[in-house]
């Protein structure tokens, strides 16, 4: 998960600004028997903790752990992460990761979804395959990726982590039905229609009420971060009905994707026979259809038809550089240097934007 930590972590570093660091005194280290792993280790605290930390009583163990948890969530690769983990595990039982997830859920319910990421990440440092932490982290990243923001890098990082996390969750907990509801939409939005179809079918299979053992227990899953984190029968029924409708809508896109795959696999005639009937229908406005038809036409020597298809692509997607390159190569092969240069120049204009 290193890339995941780095990808989103840069956007969480601002939460470390409120922390300062000090060290436990030698007497405290020996009294608590933590000198072997906490000597000269910087202890995080908030400004309001400093006075209490230096009193005879010292800072409350819970408060110290909470501050360490924030550091772990902000930067799981922090130099003293392992020392922090040993400290936390010494004072708290194996349920600490679950408690940290609940803290994150509370932040999300309060509208602080970005801050909630810190807790979900910290829980995953403690328990890398913790189901709730993975699910909540994937949902939170998805929510942040879909927010209205001009920062494309930010939304891209959140989207990438969401995809990676849900796929990781599917691998770690393959019978957890809610995963496939969200994964299906991820693949659908990526244009992977066959994969989305298979994933949605798996969701329906695993969420079948009579298919015992595959549904989350109350408190384990949510329709969205910040909800009551329980899936009731009404919500499940609504989601199943929704996915059944999606599967009906996917029938034709899956066939089109199959035709495209034939073209990419070097079987242009087969791909043409599948895709050509869609040209005069509702999918005529879908530019990838014409792009791959154009490629198939080039492969089968139907150059004039290829030009028509590629021009149609540019009507629908005027800045598609790959199509411009296809047209430039066609005209250059035909000896039409003027038209070839025209599309080469257009490519440069697109690159400059």
Key attributes of the depicted protein:
66% helix, two-stranded antiparallel sheet, 353 residues, Serine Threonine Protein Phosphatase 5, Tetratricopeptide repeat
Which structural class do the helices and strands define?
A: mainly alpha
> What is the straight-line distance between the termini?
34 Å
Q: Name the strands of the widest sheet in spatial order.
A: 1-2
The helix content is 55-70%
**Secondary-structure element order, N to C:** HEHHEHHHHHHHHHHHHHHHH
What's the pLDDT, averaged over the residues? 89
Described by the principal axes of the CA atoms, the overall outline is elongated
Largest sheet: 2 strands, antiparallel
- Report the strand count: 2
Q: Helical region count?
A: 19
Give the oligomeric state: single chain
Estimated radius of gyration: 27 Å
What low-confidence regions span 5 or more consecutive residues with pLDDT below 50?
216-230
Strand content: under 5%
């Amino acid at each position: 998960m290193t890339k995941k930590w780095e990808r989103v972590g840069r956007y969480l570093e601002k939460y470390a600004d409120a922390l300062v660091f000090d060290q436990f005194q030698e007497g405290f280290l020996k009294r608590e028997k933590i000198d072997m792993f906490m000597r000269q280790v910087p202890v995080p605290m908030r400004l309001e903790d400093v006075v209490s930390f230096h009193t005879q009583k010292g800072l409350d163990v819970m408060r110290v752990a909470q501050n360490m948890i924030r550091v772990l969530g902000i930067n799981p690769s922090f130099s003293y992460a392992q020392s922090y983990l040993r400290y936390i595990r010494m004072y708290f039982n194996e349920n600490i990761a679950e408690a940290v997830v609940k803290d994150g859920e509370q932040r999300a319910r309060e509208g602080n979804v970005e801050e909630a990421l810190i807790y979900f990440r910290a829980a995953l440092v403690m328990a890398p395959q913790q189901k709730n932490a993975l699910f909540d982290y994937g949902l939170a990243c998805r929510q942040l990726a879909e927010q209205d923001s001009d920062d494309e890098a930010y939304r891209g990082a959140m989207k990438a982590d969401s995809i990676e996390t849900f796929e990781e969750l599917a691998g770690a907990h393959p019978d957890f039905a809610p995963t496939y509801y969200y994964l299906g939409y991820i693949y659908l939005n990526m244009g992977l229609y066959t994969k989305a179809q298979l994933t949605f079918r798996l969701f329906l299979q695993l969420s079948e009420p009579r298919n015992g053992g595959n549904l989350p227990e109350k408190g384990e899953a949510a329709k969205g971060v910040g909800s009551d984190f329980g899936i009731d029968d009404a919500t499940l029924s609504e989601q199943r009905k929704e996915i059944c409708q999606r599967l009906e809508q996917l029938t034709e896109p899956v066939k089109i994707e199959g035709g495209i795959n034939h073209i990419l696999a070097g079987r242009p005639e087969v791909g043409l026979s599948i895709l050509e009937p869609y040209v005069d229908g509702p999918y005529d406005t879908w530019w990838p259809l014409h792009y791959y038809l154009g490629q198939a036409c080039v492969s089968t020597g139907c150059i004039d038809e290829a030009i028509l298809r590629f021009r149609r692509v540019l009507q629908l997607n005027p800045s598609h550089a790959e199509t411009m390159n296809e047209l430039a190569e066609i005209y250059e092969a035909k000896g039409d240097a003027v038209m070839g240069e025209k599309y080469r120049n257009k490519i440069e204009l697109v690159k400059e934007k």
